[in-house]
Write a structure and sequence with these properties.
- The complex is a heterodimer of chains A (about 110) and B (about 110).
- Chain A is about 0% helix and about 55% strand.
- Chain A is built from no helices and eleven strands.
- In chain A, the strands form two sheets. In chain A, strands 2, 4, 5, 6, 9, 10 and 11 form a seven-stranded mixed sheet that branches.
- Chain A is globular, with a radius of gyration of 13 Å.
- Chain B has about 110 residues and is mainly beta.
- Chain B is globular, with a radius of gyration of 14 Å.
- In chain B, strands 2, 4, 5, 9, 10 and 11 form a six-stranded mixed sheet that branches. A five-stranded antiparallel sheet of chain B has the order 1-3-8-7-6, with no helix packed on it.
- Classes of the chains: A mainly beta (about 110), B mainly beta (about 110).
- At the A-B interface, strand 5, strand 9 and strand 10 of A face strand 4, strand 5 and strand 9 of B.
Chain lengths: ~110, ~110
């Protein structure tokens, strides 16, 4: 099942770099999500987009900047990250916010 | 905030054994989901539950939505080596409270000895 794709799969960046994560869903869904998964911690919701509009920002630092140009694409722009931001970043989508969410394979981010 | 308590944290079982794991919450959820995650991959949806008391099967997997809407369990029968992975429960609020936010449990790591 490759309904939700993410690129890159792995990313190493310095604290002064600017990079972007990309997510694309081929399921015709209207809602998209960014999650952070750190070792030994439950998945944490970061952002929710519904019909391209951001509906939830779960107190995420401004060094993470999401962008949703259309219902099929979601980006996470990264700037001046910290080593503690190293984690697996997962994108998900759902038909609507009431429906089950389907996840992409994630981007393994390492901040040096 | 809402929290989900998932147990056990880890299990090491013999191939062919049955497995049971559960999640409890202090909040009432309208939806319970169970996911499995393999190393280096995203979670894959196993079962979705939408009604209190609902019992749903997917092959050797069976999950139930608790009557109180505050708990759910997942059973795996006759485990096989490919069942190895981390299993997560997730709850979702409904109605006007539903922003799409899923609350995840801490995960149950399952290891199966051939």
């Amino acid at each position: 099942e490759t309904g939700v794709t993410q690129t890159p799969r792995h990313l190493v960046m310095g604290m002064t770099n600017k990079k972007s994560l990309k997510c694309e869903q081929h399921l015709g869904h209207n809602a998209m999500y960014w999650y952070k998964q750190s070792a030994k911690k439950p998945l944490e919701l970061m952002f929710v987009y519904n019909f391209k509009e951001q509906t939830e920002n779960n107190s995420v630092p401004s060094r993470f900047s999401p962008e949703c140009p259309n219902s099929s694409h979601l980006f996470l722009h990264l700037h001046t990250l910290q080593p503690e931001d190293s984690a697996l970043y997962l994108c998900a989508s759902s038909r609507d916010r009431d429906n089950e969410q389907f996840f992409g394979p994630g981007t393994r981010l390492t901040v040096l | 905030g809402q929290q989900l308590n998932q147990s056990p944290q880890s299990m090491f079982i013999q191939e062919g054994e049955d497995v049971s794991m559960n999640c409890t919450s202090s909040s009432i959820f309208n939806t319970w989901l169970w996911y499995k995650q393999d190393p280096g991959e995203g979670p894959v949806l196993l079962i979705a539950l939408y009604k209190a008391g609902e019992l749903t099967s997917n092959g050797r997997l069976t999950a139930q939505f608790g009557i109180t809407r505050k708990d759910s369990f997942l059973n795996i029968s006759a485990s096989i080596p490919s069942d190895v992975g981390i299993y997560f429960c997730a709850g979702q609020l409904g109605g006007s409270s539903n922003t799409g936010k899923l609350i995840f449990g801490q995960g149950t790591t399952l290891q199966v000895k051939p």
